[in-house]
Amino acid sequence: MSKNVDNLSNKLDEKGQKLKDQLTDQNSKVVKAVADARAIGYADGLVDRVDAIDQKMQGLEADINLREQNLDQKTQECVAKVADLNQVGKYLERYTQVVNNRLVPTMRNLILAMKNGITHHTEDVAKDVYEQFKMDTNLTVQEVIKQAVSQNFTKERKKTEEASASAKLSAKASQQAVR
């Protein structure tokens, strides 16, 4: 894209230079013709013709100046457009790279996974869960179960001892009440 823009810019510069050369050549010819006509006019007493040609030459010079201004303005517009196109080209290049490097492989893998069927293996999942659990707690699943059972056993034992002590107190109180 940048090469096309450069080519377009080069062609525009070449055409502008050609036009300037042609206008300069034309201007030189007009000046020479006016000078020749003036010499002839003065020599023949034709001052009016020289004045008319002088006016035409001034008109041509004004026309040439306007064309050069217009050409310069167009050149500036083209340079600005080339700069804009270069920015767009850079953005598109980066975007295309991102799509090609990230999105396309991901889409390809997803399509293949859907085509072949998405499967999972519970052994691998269980193993990963077990390893993650061990990393998080620094204990194996068996150690955690053992601790939980031990804590529950200790709680139940304490409750049982409290119930036994309460039962003994009730029994004593009953015995004393009976005596």
Tag the structure with descriptive keywords.
4 helices; 179 residues; mainly alpha
Low-confidence stretches: none
Rg (C-alpha, Å): 50 Å
* Class from secondary-structure proportions: mainly alpha
Cα(first) to Cα(last) distance is 114 Å
Helix count equals 4
Determine the fraction of residues in helical runs and give it as a percent range. over 70%
The overall average pLDDT, rounded, is 80
User: What's the SSE pattern?
Assistant: HHHH
Form type: rod-shaped
Q: Could you tell me the strand content as a percent range?
A: under 5%
- In total, the number of strands is 0
Report the sheet with the most strands, covering strand number, pairing sense and barrel closure.
none
Could you describe the 3D structure shown?
With 179 residues, this protein is mainly α. The chain has four helices and no strands. The protein has helices spanning 2-44, 47-116, 122-137, 141-178.
Quick description:
The chain has four helices and no strands. The mean pLDDT is 80.
SSE blueprint:
Elements: H1 2-44, H2 47-116, H3 122-137, H4 141-178
Helix pairs in contact: 1-2
